[in-house]
């Protein structure tokens, strides 16, 4: 039985909130009513933050991480090891690895992984920009920190093949991350050890 609303405005707000991942209609209604109970300035500030996020956030021209300028703070930091590039699926993995405090290199965000079931192919990802980054010189190691799933392994193998003409080390994070696990949900200690104990990609996949 569909929920009856006393206000079309309330129903519209619930419908909008319910489109968010992990938010059902009951939770959406609770959030909408919470907004109504707060001061108007709170809701306006909340909406303003979301609008600013959507309108003003950019993607780093080097690594595709989110930022406010042309280059993110990580890529702009001269104290980072720019010769070591850690390849991740999404921005959430950058945050997860940064929280370990174990990595001082820079990143390359693919924007997903190869998944034929979801219609995602190599051309949909930032793979060619990674190859160009290596081709430009200065990169000595590429670390593949992708989810230990079939899709993650397929993406890693594809990248490895694309980088094979270049002289550099291609490594993969240690299997302290269990098979089938996603990087963003791995605890910081395990993830940190996996980064430190990375191994040559070719030794694990050929």
Beta-strand portion reads 5-15%
Give the low-confidence spans.
Answer: 177-181
Summarize model confidence as the mean pLDDT.
Answer: 87
How would you describe the shape?
elongated
Q: Give a quick account of the main beta sheet: strands, pairing sense, barrel closure.
A: 5 strands, mixed
Strand order of the largest sheet: 4-3-5-6-7
Any idea of the CATH topology of the largest domain? Answer: Dna Topoisomerase Vi A Subunit, Chain: A, domain 2
User: Structural class of the helices, strands and pairings?
Assistant: alpha/beta
Descriptive tags:
two-stranded antiparallel sheet; 2 domains; 9 helices; alpha/beta; Helicase, Ruva Protein, domain 3; Dna Topoisomerase Vi A Subunit, Chain: A, domain 2; elongated; five-stranded mixed sheet; 206 residues
Tell me about this structure:
The protein is of the alpha/beta class. It folds into two domains: 8-56, Helicase, Ruva Protein, domain 3; 79-205, 3-Layer(aba) Sandwich (Dna Topoisomerase Vi A Subunit, Chain: A, domain 2), CATH 3.40.1360.10. Helices cover 44% and strands 13% of the residues. It contains nine helices and seven strands. It has helices at residues 8-17, 25-37, 40-56, 73-76, 91-100, 127-135, 150-163, 188-196, 201-205; strands spanning 58-59, 66-67, 81-88, 105-109, 141-144, 169-172, 199-200. The strands form two sheets. Strands 4-3-5-6-7 form a five-stranded mixed sheet. Helix 1 crosses helix 2 (25-37) and helix 5 (91-100) packs across helix 8. The longest helix has 17 residues, at 40-56. The termini are far apart. The relative contact order is 0.10. The model is unreliable at 177-181 (pLDDT under 50).
């Amino acid at each position: 039985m569909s929920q009856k609303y006393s206000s079309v405005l309330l129903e519209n707000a619930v419908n909008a909130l319910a489109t968010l991942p992990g938010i059902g209609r009951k939770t959406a209604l609770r959030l909408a009513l919470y907004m109504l109970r707060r001061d108007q300035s709170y809701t306006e500030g909340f909406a303003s933050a979301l609008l600013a996020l959507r309108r003003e956030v950019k993607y780093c021209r080097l690594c595709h991480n989110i930022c406010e300028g042309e280059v993110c703070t990580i890529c702009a930091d001269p104290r980072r090891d720019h010769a070591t590039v850690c390849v991740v699926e999404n921005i959430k993995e950058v945050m997860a690895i940064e929280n370990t405090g174990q990595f001082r290199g820079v990143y390359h965000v693919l924007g997903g992984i190869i998944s034929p079931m979801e219609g995602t192919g190599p051309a949909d990802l930032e793979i060619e920009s990674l190859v160009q980054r290596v081709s430009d010189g200065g990169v000595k190691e590429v670390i593949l920190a992708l989810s230990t799933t079939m899709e993650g392994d397929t993406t890693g193998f594809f990248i490895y093949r694309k980088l094979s003409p270049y002289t550099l080390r291609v490594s993969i994070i240690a299997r302290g991350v269990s098979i089938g696990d996603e990087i963003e949900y791995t605890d910081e200690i395990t993830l940190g050890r996996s980064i430190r104990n990375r191994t040559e990609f070719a030794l694990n996949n050929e």
